[in-house]
Design goal:
seven-stranded mixed β-sheet; four-stranded antiparallel β-sheet; 11 strands; globular
Length: 118
């Protein structure tokens, strides 16, 4: 089992910045990717940013150039630096770790709320 604990959410005005952090109890030996998803009220959960085992990063188009994902292997943490925040970034942000072969398990954190006011 892997426990993921998010922190760093809060309320900020448009144009502001926040940094979310995800602390993993351990990194699976077969980690495929780890990153952040979000879910706004009445909307489906969507991928925001992930980083693969090999270090490849992928971003939601609407956050490219504003958000940066980073990983600290020594601390088992994954951070999401969010700049130039917009009201449409308001959502609950979830950390997710995805295992590859042979287990293919998915782990999710409990989520952290981000509110961006205009």
């Amino acid at each position: 089992q892997v426990q993921l604990v998010e922190s760093g959410g809060g309320s900020v005005q448009a144009g502001g910045s926040l940094t979310l952090s995800c602390a993993a109890s351990r990194m699976p030996f077969n980690l495929n990717s780890i990153g952040w998803h979000r879910q706004a009220p009445g909307k489906q959960r969507e991928l925001v940013a992930i980083i693969s085992y090999g270090g490849t990063k992928k971003y939601l188009a609407s956050v490219k150039g504003r958000f940066t994902i980073s990983r600290d292997n020594a601390k088992n943490t994954v951070d999401l630096q969010m700049n130039m925040l917009k009201p449409e970034d308001t959502a609950v942000y979830y950390c997710r770790a995805e295992e590859g072969w042979p287990t293919f398990r998915d782990y999710w954190g409990q989520g952290t709320q981000v509110v961006v006011s205009s």
